[in-house]
């Protein structure tokens, strides 16, 4: 799988002579409601702070994250997006043998290859509805003595999610480092699925989060990592720039993480629209829909009348862009993924898909 973050709308607009704003992008998993109004207001109110340096200790931002994630502030590292910590953590521990729950974001494998890790993959399979047999997964870890286990939770692109209780069983079962990428965790019930409250307890847990997807702020490049392992924390911190986060990312982060009204609104919207999309997609006979805890839904063209690439090519002419998921290892040419947009756009997608498969 190549490193992509949804479609290149600029390229599509040029190729089809569209205006970029006209394209409905169902390929990029970003909250369509936009950023928190309180965060935007905080940015505008503090615009003159462009002329001063940020607090190098980022006390206010770390306190906001601490409260938001139920983790000690001294266990928080700040970075320019979640991907920075995938790279830096893997480089630091340089595992000789590693396991990735797959299909998965390609960056995990790419970084592990850089340190010459022997990589195994634990594939979630369509015949199991991409669910995990926890006992089998634990035995796989035990029998192979991995130094690192990589889990994206919820998994992209399948939508499967381990519960917090299941993750705690895994952490108790192994002395391996367990890197959990919670990029999409806010789209779930975090009380059930997030393991952030386990960070202060388990030193073998390295938890990564970003703000791009749920908070709709990919432009500010704010991510953070959580670990109670002092050695890991200190070694990673030594390699971070003094002012690793710009002052506006810090201001926006503080505001949006404490905007409970916004957070509740997004969660309710996503829950409602995900249920709407899953219900209506499931009624299209040619499609098999897989349960998702993320803000995206994995679909399979079970009739095999066309491929996902064919479907992409048909829809793009109507200014609708989906993700051909065959680029994920373990998925064939009949898988595609759609994210959740606003209700009107979701209705249009359903209408177009019904028309395509009914004909």
From TrEMBL:
Cofactors demanded by this protein: pyridoxal 5'-phosphate
Keyword Transferase in record: yes
Keyword Transferase: yes
InterPro entries: Aminotransferase_I/II_large, PyrdxlP-dep_Trfase, PyrdxlP-dep_Trfase_major, PyrdxlP-dep_Trfase_small
Keyword entries, A-Z: Aminotransferase, Pyridoxal phosphate, Transferase
Family matches, as Pfam families: Aminotran_1_2
GO molecular function: pyridoxal phosphate binding; transaminase activity
Highest taxon of the lineage: Bacteria
Domain Aminotransferase class I/classII large: from-to ranges: 22-352
Protein name according to UniProt: Aminotransferase class I and II
